[in-house]
Design brief:
InterPro entries: NLR-like, P-loop_NTPase, SesA, TPR-like_helical_dom_sf. The chain contains 35 helices and nine strands. With 846 residues, it is mainly alpha-helical. The radius of gyration is 37 Å and the shape is elongated. Helix 2 packs parallel to helix 5, helix 28 runs antiparallel to helix 29 and helix 32 runs antiparallel to helix 33.
Length: 846
């Protein structure tokens, strides 16, 4: 028999053993849970384990030389036929068996019992039965009667062995610090075995580093033997050990391979006296490496050789596994490529004189992950695309990005010959996590709908259920072990590519779960975003700043089917986040959110529901106070009437809306009616809430505004002074609400010529405090700055006013709010004043 036939038979047996074991387990699980399954299905349940056991024996007999060449040639179509039937059965089970998310087992069982499935199963059962009879006829299971050879004596060590089945990667770049870490780990004391474990995200380059280290080690020490073991499954581990044992002469064609692993272990520990290095690659499945047994009754971990002259280098996706296999050495975590390494990799693999900035654009999109970079380059080369063309296509949408991650390619530099893709590589990890810890899989799905950085733990923890802290920690630890997330002081982050691949996986596994997890994310943020308030708590701004990026992202998500529950939760988040962005000076965005929230709640709950009235109040308030829009009048009139009917005259919310309505009335020029309404609101608030309550103080502030409009500045200034002092006493001098009152008082004082200096000093203090608390480019800060600049100019302090203009523009030019339209308006106003001052002119009060 030619070597190709022998290799094909061994490969077919190996594939059938791996696939057959998986199918047999699924069949057994389903059979134990359901009664009344088809007769042919029961037959398969009985026959599969027998076929698996028989083929394992066949392979052992072949390895021992107990089956002649003619019989082996005859077995090739039999085994490949068994494999084909197993693959067909696996596909059928994928469609027929219940999976997570199905409405009921009964529904799938009914489908399974349908005539079409039953007929297909009978056909598979008949085929497998025929193949089984063929195997029995040839007496394969019991051996072919060849005489066993005398026990083979393993040879003593002579020349070094090079049993690494992969060429060197000509595109390998960098990683010098990793090689230094490996050498450091291999530097051990007398009597200790050198060990190191590389861990990191799938596709990050662990196997590539190990492969490059093998070649460097051979060049450095030509006496060192180097071996490569694939530990992805028990079958592949055993096959690797058998191959090494055969190549080293430890076993012969006439001897049984069943003991090869232990013979190799003993030979390396005792007879191989010179240095050796063994790479144990892909130790990702803890069960396969530490618990599942090989044909000799030992686990792979029990067959790892241990001696001082042998070095072990493991690769694994799991940091936890790395701890276990490398103990007492610490795992060596492989991270993304550095900027220079990424640049070198692209230049090595992609022809063309691309500018560095364009390559860095590509690398940033792909987060410097080697497999993602290689995948993108393979696409560009095959499709004859430039980097710019690739980026334009890639950036079209998240769906497009996810599709690119599924693009399969053959990379001969990787230690596998099958087609690869980022999504396919990570899917293995996703499925392992799902099967190992459901809470961790849920966590990964939830994280998918947040911004990929700055995710606080509170967004990921169950709120409604009494979740054990340890359960959450275990779930997060598993994701960290696989490098899918990082954690720093209870704040998590992930790769954007991991999010895209997770979304693709969800779409493939259970499409309806995409919306389900998006809704879970929406509920998590909505329930934790600080409530809309005119008097925020001390941690309001810090929490809002943390949660806003995640709120922005989930509010953009397009649900496939909207429901009342979804829309009402969204309305809640629109209202609360709208109030926060309003505090940050983005009044236009806030108004848009208040309006959306109001419209959703009015449609779903009616205009007199308390939640609808809350959104209605926010919309009317911002239209009246900040936009000076007469639309506020009709909205607030309805709101006051609704709240009086539902909540009563003296409810604080009714009083608050009455005060806002009075402000809207002032927009019409009817200051007398406005003052009357403000005084009524103030009297009610003081009686119900007290003088020092924030709502009462707000009513006082609104009353002062309408008094000023009627030419009563002294009374207005007295009221604003009281408001400022009480708020400062209650909240502290740096609270944003206090800073607004401080500015209002300065503005009122500036209208009195006798209090110009007092007003200027108060403006200066207010500007300094607002820069400290809100930032130099916040609308509130710029409002104060502009009014101070104008007051200085009108007081003939032109040089000071001009200097202040330059300082304000310089400090605000790079602030976080510089692109806010309202901030831009103020900056243009200040720039215009600066220009007039430079020309020798001045301006009036803002």
């Amino acid at each position: 028999m030619d070597p190709v036939t022998a290799a094909g038979l061994a490969g077919a047996i190996l594939q059938f053993v791996e696939l057959g074991a998986k199918v047999a387990k699924r069949v057994a699980d389903f059979s134990s849970a359901i009664d009344g399954i088809p007769r042919a299905f029961k037959q398969i349940r009985t026959e599969l384990p027998s076929i698996l056991d028989g083929l394992k024996r066949i392979q052992r007999n072949i390895d021992a030389g107990l089956i002649d060449k003619e019989a082996q040639e005859a077995l090739v179509p039999v085994v490949t036929g068994c494999l084909a039937e197993a693959e067909q059965l696996d596909r059928l089970l994928e469609k027929a068996l219940p999976i997570a998310g199905d409405s009921s087992w009964e529904r799938k069982l009914k489908a399974f019992k349908s005539l079409a499935y039953d007929k297909k199963i009978e056909e598979i059962a008949e085929s497998l039965d025929g193949y089984t009879k063929t195997l029995v006829f040839h007496q394969v299971i019991d051996g072919f009667g060849s005489v066993r050879a005398e026990p083979h004596q393993p040879p003593p060590y002579s020349d070094p062995f090079w049993l690494v089945p992969f060429d060197r990667n000509p595109s390998f770049v960098g990683r010098d610090e990793i090689f230094a870490d490996i050498d450091q780990a291999f530097t051990v004391g007398e009597g200790s075995q050198p060990k190191a474990a590389l861990c990191g995200l799938g596709g990050i380059g662990k196997s590539q580093v190990a492969l490059e280290y093998c070649y460097r080690r051979r060049n450095k020490d030509d006496r060192c033997s180097v071996f490569w073991v694939n530990a992805a499954t028990v079958a592949r581990f055993e096959e690797s050990f058998n191959r090494i044992a055969s190549e080293c002469g430890i076993i012969t064609p006439e001897s049984a391979k069943s003991d090869a692993a232990l013979l190799l272990k003993n030979w390396l520990e005792v007879r191989h006296v010179s240095p050796w290095l063994m790479v144990v690659d892909n130790v990702d499945d803890t069960d396969a490496f530490f618990r599942e047994k090989m044909t000799i009754g030992k686990t792979p971990s029990e067959c790892i050789p241990h001696c001082q002259n042998g070095s072990l280098l493991f690769t694994t996706r799991s940091r936890d596994v790395a701890f276990d296999v490398a103990n007492p050495e610490m795992p060596i975590t492989i991270h993304e490529l550095g900027k220079i390494e990424g640049l070198d990799l692209v230049r090595k693999r992609l022809r063309g004189d691309y500018p560095e900035n364009l390559i860095f654009e590509l690398l940033q999109e792909l987060e410097y992950i080697p497999l993602a970079i290689t995948q993108a380059i393979a696409f560009m080369v095959k499709r004859q695309r430039t980097i710019r063309q690739y980026l334009e296509q890639y950036r079209k949408s998240d769906a497009t990005k996810a599709k690119f991650l599924t693009y399969e390619f053959s990379d001969h530099a990787r230690p596998e010959s099958t087609l690869e893709s980022v999504a396919k590589t990570w899917r293995l990890s996703f499925e392992f996590i799902r099967d190992s810890n459901r809470r961790a899989a849920d966590l990964l799905c939830l994280i998918n709908f947040f911004q990929h950085q700055g995710i606080p733990a509170i967004l990921l923890q169950d709120e409604d259920e009494d979740e054990d802290d340890l359960d959450f920690e275990e779930a997060a630890a598993l994701l960290k072990a696989f490098s899918f997330i990082d954690e720093n002081d209870s704040v998590f982050s992930t790769h954007r590519l991991v999010q895209l691949a997770t979304r693709w996986w969800l779409e493939e596994e259970v499409p309806k779960d995409v919306d389900r997890w998006a809704f879970e994310a929406l509920k998590s943020i909505a329930s934790r975003f600080p409530e809309a308030s005119s008097h925020p708590e001390p941690d309001y701004f810090k929490l809002g700043e943390i949660l806003l990026p995640h709120a922005e992202l989930i509010l953009q998500y397009q649900f496939k089917a909207t429901t009342e529950d979804y829309e009402l939760v969204r309305a809640k988040l629109l209202a609360s986040s709208g109030r926060y962005v309003h505090w940050n000076g983005n009044y236009d965005e806030a108004r848009a959110r208040f309006k959306q929230s109001f419209e959703i709640r009015r449609q779903r709950l009616g205009e007199k529901h308390v939640d609808t009235m809350a959104s209605m109040g926010l919309l009317g308030w911002t239209l009246a106070i900040f936009d000076k829009d007469l639309e506020a009048l009709s909205i607030l009139k309805r709101l006051v009437e609704n709240r009086r009917q539902v909540l009563g005259e003296d409810d604080p919310r009714t009083i608050d809306s009455l005060s806002d309505l009075a402000t809207a009335v002032a927009l019409t020029g009817d200051y007398t009616e406005s003052e009357k309404m403000q005084r009524e609101a103030l009297a009610r608030s003081e009686r119900i809430l007290g003088l020092r309550h924030n709502d009462t103080l707000n009513c006082m502030g609104h009353l002062a505004e309408v008094l000023d409009e009627q030419g009563k500045p002294e009374e207005a200034a007295k009221i604003l002074g009281d408001v400022y002092e009480i708020k400062k006493d209650l909240l502290g001098h740096l609270h944003p609400d206090v800073l607004v009152s401080e500015h209002n008082l300065a503005f009122m004082l500036s209208e009195d010529e006798g209090k110009t200096e007092e007003a200027i000093n108060l403006y200066k203090r207010n500007w300094r405090h607002k820069k400290e608390v809100l930032g130099p480019d916040h609308i509130e800060t710029l409002t104060t700055a502009c009014n101070l600049i104008i007051k200085l100019a009108s007081s003939d302090r032109l040089a000071e006013s001009r200097e202040l203009c330059g300082q304000c523009l310089a400090e605000a030019s790079n602030g976080p709010n510089k692109n806010n339209p309202r901030s831009q308006e103020w900056l243009m106003e200040i720039a215009g004043i600066w220009q007039k001052l430079a020309e020798g002119g001045s301006d009036g009060e803002a």
